[in-house]
Every structure is written in structure tokens, then in C-alpha cells.
Amino acid sequence: LERQVALDSGVLAIAEHEGKIISTDTDKIILSGNRDTLSIPLVMYQRSNKNTCMHQKPQVQRGKCIKKGQILADGAATVGGELALGKNVLVAYMPWEGYNSEDAVL
User: Fold this and answer.
1) What is the pLDDT along the chain (106 residues), one digit of tens a residue?
2) Where are the domains of the chain?
3) For 2-105, which CATH class?
4) C-alpha dist (Å) from residue 85 to 9, 44, 57, 106
């Protein structure tokens, strides 16, 4: 459940193609694919709509080969692509009256 919540939150940077990491910096990751080179920008201390700080930390090293869908950078409250809320946190998932639009993690 923690991995799926982190993926659905949109705070992770995920590889869209296979390739090799050319360089990793605090503000971007450069990925070399089959015929093209992609520059993946990372969020650095930006303000969100809810007045919180958004930040992404790169999780891949230079020279590593990656696959499509692999986690490139962690976001807020995630470690290794999984939700990290702390020790001994009890989480309950509750759909409200069967509607998906009002689901919540409490």
C-alpha cells in the first residue's frame, strides 16, 4: 500500500524510458536512452498550493542503467519510492459511502 500511495501522489520522479544515467545533480537528472538524451528536471524547494515546501532528492547514481518505471527521485515523505510516515504509524484506508472521490488515508 505504501508504494502505491507514493506512486499516486505524484511527488516521485519516474523513468519514462530505459537508459543510462549520464549525470545526476540536485536540479536535474540526465538520462541517455536509445537515440535521445532526456533532461529530467527536479523540484527544488518550491511552494505548493497548500503553502508547503516541495523538494525532490535524486536516488540514482551516475553510470547506472535503469528500466522504465524505476524511481529516479524521492519526494516529500517518501524513501526508496515508498511512503515513509515514521515508526509505528497506524494507517487506515476508508472509502466513504463507496465513492472513490472521497477516499482517505487516516
Assistant:
1) 788 888 888 889 999 889 999 999 999 999 998 889 999 999 999 998 888 888 999 999 999 999 999 999 998 889 988 988 777 777 666 666 666 655 555 5
2) 2-105
3) mainly beta
4) 14, 21, 17, 12
